[in-house]
Amino acid sequence: MSKKPSTPSTPGKSSTPSTPSTPGKSSKSGRPSKSGKKNVAIGAGVAVAALLLGAASYSATKPDEPSSVTAKEEPAADVSADPQAGVYPELAKLARRDAKDPLAQGRANAPVVLIEYADFKCGYCGKFARDTEPGLVKKYVDEGTLRIEWRNFPIFGADSESAARGAWAAGRQGRFWQFHEAAYAQGSKEKGFGGERLKELAKEAGVKDVGRFSDDAGSAGAKAAVKKDQEEAYGLGATSTPSFLVNGRPISGAQPDEVFDQAIEQAAGSAGKGGKK
Predict the structure, then answer these.
(1) pLDDT, tens digit (0-9, with 9 covering 90-100), for 244-266
(2) CATH number of the CATH domain containing 236
(3) Structural domain count, the chain
(4) Shortest CA distance to 102 belongs to which of 179, 155, 200?
(5) Is 7 within the bounds of a domain?
(6) If both were cysteines, with which of 3, 85, 128, 261 could 254 make a disulfide (CB 3.0 to 4.6 Å apart)?
(7) Would residue 20 count as lying in a domain?
(8) Is 192 a domain residue?
């Protein structure tokens, strides 16, 4: 999992890691900018999420590309047999359920919403996107149990920010998930996310009007949308990517498939829909 830089430093630069990461996390620790300190006013669940998303350690498979920091083995995320254990209703309220949201997939009224806070420069986010998410879509999104809502949470400087704005711009033409797939393809992030590279990804994603895409990516609207997502994550106390909420249950890191399966199944059961067995 990837942690945010320690200061709101010069774009393109990030701080030296000050704490070791855990499997499923590529770590850069520290504080958000002033705008990022605005907490989401949703009660005690914020403190819990700050602990689980920012400090707890979990085991997960190491991504293909090496991390810049050391990983250590810790117990896997605990999804209790009690379906309500570790679930915070106030966190579930962060689900936007906007049927017109191009950065979401699945029915707006699906019984389970998985919110993902991620960065296109994060290796573990890429691992989740390639290895786990397609299975969740096939098993749960396609049959109506699950909705996935993306939140841009760029934490690695200028490239992360430009990729996030590019993804938002692709969404303006209905191609966010295709852009998401192209940006997370094996080896993609190593090519960077500069202006020309973003255009290449847009074309690969099937964006029809690349000129409009570039204008949208550089717009105040893109900046505001990304900032809104960032502040939501910072308000939860999230310090690393990927971080997730499943109907108010925090999950940290690119966990094994069964962790997400169990969390989704339990959430679906609690919502009155059994889900797939």
Answers:
(1) 999 999 999 999 999 999 999 99
(2) 3.40.30.10
(3) 1
(4) 179
(5) no
(6) 128
(7) no
(8) yes
Region 76-93: mean pLDDT is 67
Across the range 84-103, mean pLDDT stands at 92
Residue with tokens 């998930």, as numbered in its chain: 177
Domain that holds residue 140: 47-57+77-270
Residue 33 lies in a domain: no
Q: How many residues does the chain have?
A: 277
Q: How many CB atoms lie within 10 A of CB 104?
A: 24
Question: HEC states along the chain?
Answer: CEECCCCCCCCCCCCCCCCCECCCCCCCCCCCCHHHHCCCCCCCHHHHHHHHHHCCCCCCCCCCCCCCCCECCCCCCCCCCCCCCCCCHHHHCCCCCCCCCCCEECCCCCCEEEEEEECCCCHHHHHHHHHHHHHHHHHHHCCCCEEEEEEECCCCCHHHHHHHHHHHHHHHCCCHHHHHHHHCCCCCHHHCCCHHHHHHHHHHCCCCCHHHHHHHHCCHHHHHHHHHHHHHHHHHCCCEECEEEECCEEEECCCCHHHHHHHHHHHHHHCCCCCCC
Summarised one tens digit per residue, pLDDT across range 129-143 is 999 999 999 999 999
